[in-house]
Every structure is written in structure tokens, then in C-alpha cells.
Amino acid sequence: MEKYIISAVIILLIALLSYTGCGRKAEKQVPEPFVSEVVHPSWTEDAVLYEVNIRQFTPEGTFNAFASHLPRLKDLGVDILWLMPIHPIGIKNRKEALGSYYSVKDYTAVNPEFGTLSDFKDLLDKAHEAGFHVIIDWVPNHSSWDNHLTADHPEFYVKDSTGSFIPPIGTDWTDVIQFDWSNKGLHDYMIEALSFWVRLGVDGFRVDHPHKTPPEFWERARTELEKIRPVFMLAENEDQTAFLAKGFDMNYSWELHHLMNQVARKKDSVNTLTKYYRKELSVYPQNAYR
Question: Which of 62, 104, 268, 276 has CA 20 to 30 A from 163's CA?
Fold first, then answer.
């Protein structure tokens, strides 16, 4: 009987330790204070950013149709237009009929459903004439299965033990395949592709899911892009503050978003905002955008 009691106690202790360990892992890590060396473009100060979904913005779903709404958006006080991905969408392993904007088939082309590259350039010109700056969505983590890079540069991708392309691990993103950012050739290609759009007149990028891309790449990319024009770089990331040190102007604050929702629904006290901002001010330098 004594042996059974000892065994039960040991099992209970293991269970408690495991639970405690899991609890520790679930705790959100607070970023360390850092210094940002980024010099923001002057036109980003106090700017109002407006997200645009070209396909859904108008019945036509085109660049030309959207252009007619520029005066109205200017009257609203918008300064920066952020266009969701404008690139062709992959067909192979596509999800649903329309596919995902974030399954990019060609990084230097536009979705033909939206119009031509010339149509996009006309939209850029009209937006700039109206006093807007324009940034576009950029997807560096993965591409569509039928992106030309799969044939031209298969070494740019992560592969399984059989040498086959794979979707990003831990996701249900079955319509895309994971880039291998340890390949320096991929760095060179991406900088050239980014430069293509900046030369065309784009003023920056909102970078989708940069989590597995190296911060030093974005430092190099910003240096190269700013040889063409000052750019605004927004990272869809919250915790990896290294991105803001030299590469990006701004990142996300989902924590504040969720906290504000909780306060609005009376599920949390407005006093929690004090704690949030104390932490925010202790981590982020005054020149960092959030």
C-alpha cells in the first residue's frame, strides 16, 4: 500500500510540475528596451493610414475604378494609402475560387483582374498628385506553388526529406510554400523586386508575416531602397523589436487592440491601459512608431 501511495505522490508532483512548466511557456515575453536608428520620412509624421482592398473596394474591382475615389478619401483626411497585395494570385493548390492575395505568383507583376501595370502606374501618379503616399503589401515568408521561382530558383525554398516543397510549418496555409531565408540569393532577389516597385513610384511596404525573415535583411533592404527614395516600412509583427532597430518604421500592437476591445465590452478596467503604457514606454524609444 505504501508503494502505491508513493507512486501516486510522484505522479501528482510530475503533473504539477508539467502544468507549471506549461504555464511558464504560455507567459508572454516582454521585449527588452532597444534603440531605433530609423529616420522616418517626414511625410509619415502624424499621418493617417488607410487600408485598401482593390478587389472589394468597387463593383469593378480595378485600379481605375478605385482611382475615382481618391478625392473622397482625401476629404476624409487620409495621408497614406496601403494597398493589400496587388500581385497575381497562384492557381496551383489555390484556396476557393478567388484564392488568397497572400499566395503570390509573381513579385514584379500585378493581378490582371485589377488591371495592367500601366493602370497601376496611373493610379500611383493620380494618388501622388492628390497628395497621397502609397505603400503596398509585401509577402516575403512564402509564395504560391506556381511562382516562377520554383522553377528558376528552387534553392530559394525549404524542402522536406524527399526534396519536395512544403507549406509553412504549423499553419494551414496549404496554398503557399515556405521560402528559405538562409539562402543569400533570395535576399538579392527580394531586394531587386522591392526596388522595382520603388522605382515605379511606390513609397514603401506593409510587410506580411516577417517573423522568419532576418532583421539584417530589412536593414540592407532599407539602405538600398532609400538610394531611390525615402520609404515607409510597416512590419506585421509585434514582439520582435529587432525589426524596428534599423529596418522598419513601425510594427503592430495587437495587445492594445485586444485590450481596448476588452475595455469597450466592460470585461476589463480602463486602468489596465496604465499598465500597458508603462510597459510600452519602458521598451519602445520615443522615435519608434506603433
Answer: 104
Cell of 171: 499553419
Mean pLDDT score across all residues of the chain: 92
Q: What is the pLDDT of residues 219-259, one digit of tens each?
A: 999 999 999 999 999 999 998 999 999 999 999 999 999 99
Give the C-alpha distances (Å, rounded to integers) separating 93 from 48, 96, 113, 177, 273: 37, 9, 19, 10, 44
Residues 108 and 238 in one domain: yes
Q: Which of 268, 277, 237, 232 is nearest to 254 (CA)?
A: 237
Global pTM? 0.88
User: CA-to-CA distance for 285 and 60, rounded, in angstroms?
Assistant: 44
6, part of any domain: no
| CB within 8 Å of 253: residues ≥ 6 apart | 238, 280, 290
Examine the domain organization and report whether 187 and 238 are in the same domain. Answer: yes
Please indicate, yes or no, whether residues 156 and 264 belong to a single structural domain of this protein.
no
Looking at residue 14, what is its pLDDT? 40
Same domain, 243 and 261: no
| Shared domain check, 289 and 244 | no
Residues 245 and 283 both lie in one domain: no
Same domain, 203 and 270: no
**For residues 14-30, average pLDDT:** 47
Pick from 136, 208, 196: which is nearest to 171 by CA? 208
